[in-house]
Write a structure and sequence with these properties.
Layout (H helix, E strand, L loop, with lengths): L1 H40 L11 H15 L6 H11 L4 H8 L6
Helix pairs in contact: 2-3
C-alpha cells in the first residue's frame, strides 16, 4: 500500500514536470520569435533616430517655439521639453544639453 502511494506521488510529480517542461518549451519558442523580430527590425529604424545631435537640437527648439504662443498658459511651454525627455535616452540627453529649451 505504501508502494502504491509512492508510485501515485511519483506519477503526479511526473505529470507536473511534464507541464513545466511544456511551459518552458513555449517560453523558449516565444523568446526565439521575439529575438528574430528584433533582429529583423533592428536596421529598419526611422531616419529620425539617426539625426545628428545638432539637427535634433534645432528641431527641439523649433517645437518649443511653435508650442508657446502668447495667449496660452505656461503649461505647454514647460511641458514640451519634459515630453521630449521621455522619448528615449538619446533624446533626453540632447534635450538636457540645450539650455535654450528650458
Amino acid at each position: 500500500q505504501q508502494l502504491d502511494t509512492v508510485l501515485r506521488d511519483i506519477s503526479g510529480l511526473e505529470t507536473v514536470m511534464d507541464g513545466i517542461n511544456n511551459f518552458h518549451k513555449q517560453l523558449v519558442d516565444q523568446k526565439e520569435k521575439v529575438v528574430q523580430s528584433m533582429f529583423l527590425h533592428k536596421g529598419r529604424g526611422s531616419a529620425l533616430w539617426h539625426l545628428p545631435t545638432e539637427v535634433l537640437s534645432h528641431i527641439f527648439i523649433y517645437c518649443l517655439r511653435k508650442g508657446s504662443k502668447p495667449d496660452r498658459s505656461l503649461a505647454p511651454k514647460l511641458l514640451t521639453p519634459m515630453l521630449l525627455t521621455r522619448v528615449c535616452r538619446r533624446w533626453r540627453e540632447v534635450a538636457m544639453g540645450i539650455p535654450n529649451l528650458w
